[in-house]
Amino acid sequence: MRNELDFAPLYRSSIGFDRVFNLLNNAQRLQAIDAWPPYDIVKTGEDDYRIQMAVAGFAEGDLDITQERNVLLVKGQKAADGKDGEYLHRGIAGRAFERRFELADHVRVENASLRHGILSIALKREVPEAMKPRKIVIGDGSFQQAPLQIESERQVA
Asked: What are the TM regions of this chain, as residue ranges (predicted)?
């Protein structure tokens, strides 16, 4: 039994949430989730995150990380191996992969590193000053405005 949510009524009564509804629709459509390479997403602070991917066997030159708007794309493509010999067992996965991460607004990649087969990508959410909450001071109720003055034409003597 498959339960699919219908977001059509929400489209009719909300404005500016198209991206959220598209994300929810796309998440429903994912049938087979590719679990390779394995990864963790860690919240390391109030506005700091880290993605860790197990990419054993890949070198820095084999990996490509791209952020375009609200999507982080991590690709891995191993360079062709020289013929080292005949494999009797091949347990270290070396297949190409592409992993997409949807990022919230104002999240950017700070840096990336590859150590001991773990690719770490540091992310930071930076909310612009204009969008941060601000404290409104409550005054005494008297508004001090400059008196309105009608400008008239000056007479030239």
From this structure: none
